[in-house]
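Sequence in, structure out. Go.
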Amino acid sequence: MTNGPLLDWTVGGQQAGGVIEAGRRAVPWRLTLHSSVPVEKVEVVVNGAVVFSAPGLTEPGSKEYGGTVNLPVGGWVAVRATGGAINRWPAMDSYAFAHTAPVWIGRVGSSEPIARKKAATDLLDALSAADQALTSSYKETPIPELRAQLKAARDAWSRSSRTAEPHRPDDRPLPHGERAVVRRMALTKFRFDTCPALGSAAATPNRWIVAGKYDIR
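Output:
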């Protein structure tokens, strides 16, 4: 996704959306940034952690980058571009942003146990912020269905936060309720007055349920 910058990149010969062979090793990556607006920095991200960062563009143009990345046992690799502030066409936004789809390690949907555990912990923080925002917005109005969804999500991710579980084979069912919770949360709209944990004063769960930072299946 992008509001201006274009990220043309490969890692281990695979483009965004592809699958790279699993195995702990260093693989080469190449990136070409094209942008009609200034970009503060570009980053290579592995399972939510930044492993490479470099300055972007101070004016419209193109710039090339390259290097190697150490692959974990599973998960994903992606690239993003962020900042700085812009206030002119064609971006039509307050700051430049672009994020590629992942290149998966081993198979589509793979995960790395420690990264999955951390992602679950981060999601629990986001759920707590959502709960507080609901209380602030709805006050005394009963919202049993929303409360039930939050509780189910909290229960599911609490289990994941306690154990760095190994890869889940494609044919193994998700923990009870997890698939339904993620799907329903992604479709449910909430009203937020202020929610710093989600990075927006007026956000929906989509902002963090589908964000590349989190390792969600």
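Check: The CA atoms of residues 93 and 109 lie 31 Å apart. DSSP finds four helices and ten strands in the chain.
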